[in-house]
């Protein structure tokens, strides 16, 4: 056999080997490599994780970890691990998996109607990497509160209910700093000026808005209720807001899961800074997280002469308003008779 023929045969063997290797390589890269039933799922890679940590996290969700590793090494992923939240789709191949692990997917974080800072921290902590303990510590940081004019009782006013976008691996301090920025954006010069026209600071306005929010679920009625409470503040009359008494009862019992549908006369005399029957002015902090419609109602209240209101028995969810105590007593008796007939005990 001459040299040319040998070279030719060797060339064919090499080329065939390269083709086979290429085919194997392509199969390794582009064949399906997932084993979860859902159409898609998220994996979370904690801050400071390394490649070995990542492999442990994703191992239950890939069919062949060696195949994933081979592709990851070729794509320099082990040296470029990212923390965050990553979307995996059923049927992904190893190349797609590695690519997905480089694309941190933000969390759409929504919150509203939280009654206490502790509840709020728990809700947020269930959606991002920072846990409720680190969030509470950050929110209550004395330097931060002093710099921004908050106290432990009122720092909840900082959080404006909405839907926000965060990366899952956001730290507690970064979350807090984003929220104070959003608070300042909301309380722009125009809104601050409107609050001042009502004799309120942004903190005061939010505390009052929390009462308005709890007093009525009817958004179109909130400016009228805000007007009534502002009238009471102007004449030095206690706010006499049942929702503040309910908050005080929950706080005393340390039970914010209970549902209180009715306030009794003996409840109105309980000693608490949140009891607006016993104390003149605003409570020391919000009794809930007011939504934007309640905040807007307080700084854009209806101008009226009403001093009193009570729940309506004719228009469910709404209230009956009165300018005099005599008118109010008629409305109040009508409601009291109705609720007694319903058998509501608490």
Automatic annotation (TrEMBL):
Q: What is its EC number?
A: 4.2.2.29
Keywords, in A-Z order: Cell membrane, Cell wall biogenesis/degradation, Lyase, Membrane, Transmembrane, Transmembrane helix
Instruction: Spell out where the chain crosses the membrane.
Output: 6-26
Plastid among keywords: no
- Any GO molecular function: lytic endotransglycosylase activity
Highest taxon of source = Bacteria
Q: Where is the signal peptide?
A: none
Q: Which GO terms of the cellular component aspect does the record hold?
A: plasma membrane
Q: Where does this polypeptide localize? A: Cell membrane
Q: Topologically, how does it sit relative to the membrane?
A: Single-pass membrane protein
Q: Which InterPro entries does this entry report, sorted A to Z?
A: MLTG-like
**Site note Important for catalytic activity, residues:** 215
Gene3D superfamilies reported in the protein's UniProt record: Classic Zinc Finger
Q: Which family would the database say this protein is a member of?
A: Belongs to the transglycosylase MltG family.
The record's section on NCBIfam families has: endolytic transglycosylase MltG
What this chain does, per the entry, is described as: Functions as a peptidoglycan terminase that cleaves nascent peptidoglycan strands endolytically to terminate their elongation.
What's the protein called, per UniProt? Answer: Endolytic murein transglycosylase
Native organism: Flavobacterium hiemivividum
């Amino acid at each position: 056999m001459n040299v040319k023929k040998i070279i030719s045969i060797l060339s064919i063997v090499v080329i065939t080997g390269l083709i086979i290797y290429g085919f194997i390589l392509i199969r390794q890269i582009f064949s399906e490599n997932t084993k979860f039933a859902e159409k898609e799922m998220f994996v979370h890679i904690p801050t400071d994780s390394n490649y070995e940590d990542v492999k442990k996290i994703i191992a239950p969700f890939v069919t062949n970890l060696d195949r994933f590793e081979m592709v990851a090494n070729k794509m320099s992923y082990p040296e470029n691990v990212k923390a965050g939240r990553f979307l995996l789709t059923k049927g992904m191949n190893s190349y797609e998996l590695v690519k997905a692990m480089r694309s941190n997917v933000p969390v759409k974080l929504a919150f509203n109607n939280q009654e206490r800072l502790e509840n709020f921290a728990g809700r947020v902590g269930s959606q991002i990497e920072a846990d409720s303990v680190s969030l509470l510590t950050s929110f209550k940081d004395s330097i931060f509160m002093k710099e921004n004019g908050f106290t432990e009782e009122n720092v909840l006013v900082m959080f404006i209910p909405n839907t926000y976008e965060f990366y899952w691996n956001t730290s507690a301090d970064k979350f807090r700093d984003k929220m104070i920025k959003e608070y300042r954006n909301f309380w722009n010069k125009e809104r601050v000026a409107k609050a001042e026209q009502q004799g309120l600071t942004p903190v005061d306005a939010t505390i009052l808005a929390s009462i308005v929010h709890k007093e009525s679920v009817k958004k179109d009625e909130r400016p009228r209720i805000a007007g009534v409470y502002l009238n009471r503040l102007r004449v030095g009359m206690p706010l006499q807001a049942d929702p503040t008494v309910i908050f005080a009862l929950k706080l005393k019992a340390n039970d914010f899961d209970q549902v209180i549908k009715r306030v009794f006369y003996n409840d109105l005399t309980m000693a608490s800074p949140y009891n607006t029957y016993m104390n003149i002015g605003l409570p020391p902090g919000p009794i809930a997280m007011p939504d934007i419609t309640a905040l807007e109602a307080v700084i854009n209240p209806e101008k009226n002469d009403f001093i009193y209101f009570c729940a309506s028995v004719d228009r469910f969810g709404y209230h009956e308003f009165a300018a005099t105590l005599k008118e109010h007593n008629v409305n109040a008796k009508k409601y009291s008779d109705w609720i007694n007939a319903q058998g509501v005990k608490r």
